[in-house]
Amino acid sequence: MECLDRPGYAGTSIETVVEQSGMSRGWVLHQFQARLALMTATTHAAMQTIIDDV
């Protein structure tokens, strides 16, 4: 989520996620074939955390 804080969706690249997460580019692309899939999963996880906290 930190990757999205300032640049938002448009400014967040797969490369940024790879650099900040320490995961390999290959692993990220294997799990999420597109940036939209990665952002969807990230948003889902964040929303689930909020729901769980309520």
What does this protein look like?
This protein is an all-alpha fold and 54 residues long. It has a single domain (2-53), classed as Arc Repressor Mutant, subunit A (Orthogonal Bundle). The chain contains 5 helices and no strands. It is globular, with a radius of gyration of 12 Å. The model has no long low-confidence stretch (mean pLDDT 86).
Provide keyphrases for this structure.
mainly alpha; Arc Repressor Mutant, subunit A; single chain; 54 residues
Structure in a nutshell:
The chain is built from 5 helices and no strands. It has 54 residues and is mainly alpha-helical.
SSE topology sketch:
Blueprint: H1 2-5, H2 8-11, H3 14-21, H4 25-31, H5 35-53
CATH classification, class level = Mainly Alpha
What is the fold-level CATH name, i.e. the topology? Arc Repressor Mutant, subunit A
What's the structural domain tally? 1
CATH architecture classification name: Orthogonal Bundle
The helix content, as a percent range, equals: over 70%
Q: State the separation between the terminal residues, measured CA to CA.
A: 20 Å
Give Rg in angstroms: 12 Å
Broad structural category: mainly alpha
Helix-strand sequence: HHHHH
**Which stretches are low in confidence, meaning pLDDT under 50 for 5 or more residues running?**
none
Helical stretch tally: 5
Largest sheet: none
